[in-house]
From TrEMBL:
The keyword Transport applies. Keywords: ATP-binding, Nucleotide-binding, Transport. It comes from the Bacteria. Residues 5-236 form the ABC transporter domain. This is ABC-type Na+ transport system, ATPase component.
Length: 240
């Protein structure tokens, strides 16, 4: 298996003294679908954002496809696409469609390809009808879906998705799972931060974080049963 992400002795301490990540060691292979699972405040978002280069770690090393994130961030930017909640980097006065167009252009999409991808993204996320609404006038759910559409239209090798189906309706949820499956079929690596059983079931591996430390790393099938009934209890057992 080809290693795509290697994390060694990663530590992140916020200015308020909170150690959000402590000595994390993790290797992720190309094409894996993996969930970072843990209770509130465990460090999931911090880990996702550190891999996504939004957060600078205090200690440790991350390499992506052999590139060091400290020294070769430009190369890595092309390889990753990230969707986190509380996204602030949209233009408030632009419409949903204009925001996606702008982002597509930043990612070197032009002409027909840009148009096609933006349209597909809007349709997949159920935003086509409301595409002319200004970002500042969109509902929270629309903003979340736009955030996902933006992450999913980018041609990347690694998709980092922080609770991707949180706050979206069932139809969009199913669509997101379909897209995740499509990406996976193409050999893309997908990393989720999640509490959601149905989301976790779609991944192959579960890495459990507790108070900034990895406490378990298992194949999803080793933990969860095929029938989903008891799975919520099993996941709770892991973070007790
Ligand atoms: N910008 C920040 N400044 C200071 N402390 C922070 C900051 N962001 C997160 N923390 C703290 O770091 C710890 C890990 O937070 P993080 O958001 O990574 O956890 P999480 O597992 O994603 O939680 P949740 O499931 O609630 O989203 C928490 O104790 C949190 O309060």
């Amino acid at each position: 298996m080809e290693k795509i992400i290697e994390i060694k002795n990663l530590t992140k301490i916020y200015k308020n003294g909170i150690k959000a990540l402590e000595n994390i060691n993790l290797t992720i292979n190309r094409g894996e679908k993996i969930t970072i699972f843990g209770p509130n405040g465990a460090g999931k978002t911090t880990l996702i954002k550190t891999i996504g280069m939004f957060i600078i770690p205090d200690k440790g090393k991350i390499t992506i496809k052999g590139y060091n994130i400290k020294k070769e961030s430009k190369k890595i930017k092309k390889l990753i696409s990230i969707a986190t909640s509380n996204e602030r980097s949209f233009y408030y006065r632009l419409s949903l469609e204009e925001n996606l167009n702008f982002f597509g252009m930043l990612n070197n999409l032009t002409g027909k390809e840009l148009k096609k991808k933006v349209e597909k993204g809007l349709k997949e996320m159920g935003l086509y009808e409301t595409r002319k609404i200004k970002y500042m006038e969109a509902s929270t759910g629309m903003k979340r879906r736009l955030n996902l559409a933006r992450a999913l239209i980018k041609e990347a090798e690694i998709y980092l998705l922080d609770e991707p189906t949180n706050g979206v309706d069932i139809e969009t949820k199913i669509k997101i799972y379909e897209i995740m499956e499509e990406l996976s079929q193409k050999g893309k690596t997908i990393i989720l931060a999640s509490h959601d059983v149905s989301e976790i079931e779609k991944t192959d591996r579960i890495v459990v974080l507790k108070k900034g430390k990895i406490t378990a790393d298992k194949k999803t099938g080793e933990i969860l049963e095929k029938t989903t009934r008891k799975n919520e209890e099993k996941l709770l057992e892991l973070i007790k």
